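Try it yourself: sequence plus NAP, in.
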Amino acid sequence: MTAKIIDGTKIAAEIRSELKDKADELKKKGITPGLVMVRVGEDPASVSYVRGKTKASEELGIYSETIVFPEDAKEEEVLAKVEELNKDPKFHGILVQLPLPKHIDSDKVLNAIDPRKDVDGFHPVNVGKLLIGEPFFMPCTPHGVQQLLIRSGYDPAGKHVVICGRSNIVGKPLMAILVQKKKGANATVTVCHTGTKDLAATTRQADILIAAMGSPKAITADMVREGAVVIDVGVNQVGTTAEGKRILVGDCDFDAIKEKAEAITPVPGGVGPMTVTMLMVNTVRAAEMQSA
Ligand SMILES: NC(=O)c1ccc[n+]([C@@H]2O[C@H](COP(=O)([O-])OP(=O)(O)OC[C@H]3O[C@@H](n4cnc5c(N)ncnc54)[C@H](OP(=O)(O)O)[C@@H]3O)[C@@H](O)[C@H]2O)c1
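Structure, out:
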């Protein structure tokens, strides 16, 4: 069997096209969705991520601004800016690009964002609301994974989903999303981590296997059940090309697993394009909520 490739770029484009219609509807009512990003320092990955989010906003007609602080900015300055942005009606969504420099307490900054503007979904209020199934916003990467599954015809309902990874930004929120008694969820979810005794024995039970470990090709073909659906969230740089381009691989051994799985996401081109798209979804939702 050669697996169907789940094309994240194509599914993300589909969602963006639907979203453009929603954004246009809001504009007819005189509302332009607004997103503000706060970046501290010049970390190249953060600069590139913020650039990608700005470009996606422009394509959808979302107004966006980036506020850049120098690397040595004081925590109080960043907190004061977040407070100011909470009150600014131009911005429906606020995103603080992580990681922040070590001298700034990221939790303190994230907790200062108004939960109704927290389009990353990391504020404890949103984490709690997600767990009880009433989120203002779903965190972007896990929401993107759910959409990939639904839109490629692999509804998680009734399936055994095994998630490898329990981070606060991917594994745990994904578990909270997929376990809900709701459409596009209602799965039996197992979450694995470094304390899991026999990882392979657990992953082999998965109808849907989701790898979010940050460990290159850690999931090998023998860990996957014949006919499983595999979603690879991992993005690991394993070198650079002669031209200086980053060589990226996922957490799954794609070439071997694709001969065994029913479907699999590639890296890049799988989960990655969905993350920025779901941020745009949350920004438009924030504008709808705040203008209702
Ligand atoms: N495509 C995207 O848009 C996107 C977005 C976010 C993240 N990512 C990628 O997804 C990956 C995970 O990110 P993250 O932020 O969730 O990582 P993280 O915070 O480092 O968490 C990794 C999790 O995987 C578990 N783990 C690691 N190695 C393991 C092993 N050998 N066996 C079992 N469990 C293992 C860890 O267990 P413990 O808790 O026991 O340490 C931890 O829970 C990274 O490659 C990241 O770059 C991609």
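One thing you can check immediately is this: Residues 141, 164-167, 169-171, 192-196, 199, 212-215, 218, 233-236, 271-272, 275 surround NAP (CB under 6 Å).
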